[in-house]
Amino acid sequence: MTSYLCPGNSSYSTKFCWIHTYFGQLQKAVLSFYSTRPRKRCNVKLSFLLRTTYSASDVLTHVTSDVLNEATSEWSRNMGNCLKSDLSCINDLEEQLHDLFNEVNIMIKSGKRNDAVDLLQANYEAIKEQIDCGFRGIEEAAVLDIIALGHMALGDLNTVGSILHLLSGIVEDLNDDVPLLDSILMHMGSIYDKLGKFEMSLSSYRRALAITERRYGETNFFIIVPLLGMAKALGSVGRARKAIETYHRAISILESSQGTESEELVVPLFALGNLLLEERRAADAETAFQRNYG
Fold first, then answer.
1. How far apart are CA 170 and CA 65, in angstroms?
2. Torsion sign over Cα 186, 138, 168, 97
3. Do 173 and 228 sit in the same domain of this protein?
4. Within 10 A of 167 (CB to CB), how many other CB atoms are there?
């Protein structure tokens, strides 16, 4: 069954991003949502997400090349027109990609890893065909992003590396004002960190931070995610002083926006404390840790 954009009846869409936080060797991924403005219906077809209704075994019906190419031309043309008017089509793209990632997670948790791999691979082959035909926009980047996150959930780091290479080539050519780019860059920063490519992680987080700062301001709560990612990357490449400054900045923003007793402070305070210990600043580290236990 062909999947369409704008399939639901809800008047609001959700924007999502993966927030990767760290304590010691622990990495925890938290999916966060926030509502966006009401959306209009649109007629854009997401031709590469061709899924059957989810069941235990039926995971995806692959489209033929002729159908894909025909649908791609119409979809890309309509998407371009939609982006010029409002973000409704982008919001619906997010919703479908979020559903795809949830479907992959369900398969993994229920022990159907092969089904999850098949679903991701079929979508990769379809979107790769679009890219080979010359389509290299935010839509292609967003799909590759979700496919990469799916392979991360599977622990398939080798496949993730090749997907990330293709994704980075597309992202490099996109303007910073393109919707979704900040979230994609944050995901890339987290994946690069997991792969041990800390300089590339830093570069991704730095660009994501610049985008969010321009959009929300330099003291807004929404810049915390790229700020913490950048701080961790700075520490990983040996720039401890700058990393400590960045953690302090994040803590200051959280205190101003969420209050000094906010649970949101736990992650940056522990990360700061651990980094200070590595720098043999035990007294300063103790101060950071005590704030969490105080």
1. 22
2. positive
3. no
4. 24
Sign of the CA dihedral running 123, 36, 186, 114: negative
Sign of the torsion angle spanned by Cα atoms 176, 180, 183, 184: negative
One-letter identity of residue 59: V
Give the end-to-end CA distance of the chain in Å, rounded to a whole number.
Answer: 55
Residues 6+ apart with CB under 8 A from 100: 49, 51, 119, 123, 146, 150
Backbone φ/ψ region at 72: left (φ over 0), alpha (ψ -120 to 50), beta: alpha
Q: Write down which residue in 179, 195, 211 finishes a domain.
A: 195
Phi, psi of 32 (to 5 degrees): -115, 150
Q: How far is CA 110 from CA 24, 54, 83, 118, 156, in A?
A: 29, 13, 37, 15, 18
Flag whether 201 is in a domain: no
Q: How many domains does the chain have?
A: 2
* Cβ–Cβ < 8 Å for 149, 18: yes
Q: Which tokens hold the place of 148?
A: 């990469």
Round to whole Å and give the CA distance between 87 and 54.
28
Same domain for 266 and 169: no
Domain that holds residue 294: 220-294
211 within domain boundaries: no
Q: For every one of its 294 residues, what pLDDT tens digit does the chain have, with 9 covering 90 and above?
A: 333 222 233 332 333 333 333 322 223 322 332 223 233 333 333 333 433 332 222 223 232 333 333 333 333 444 444 444 346 777 788 888 888 888 999 999 999 999 999 999 999 999 999 999 999 999 899 999 999 999 999 999 999 999 999 999 999 999 999 989 999 999 999 999 999 999 999 999 999 999 999 999 999 999 999 999 999 999 999 999 999 999 999 999 999 999 988 889 999 999 999 999 999 999 999 999 998 776
The H or E element that residue 26 is part of is strand 26-35
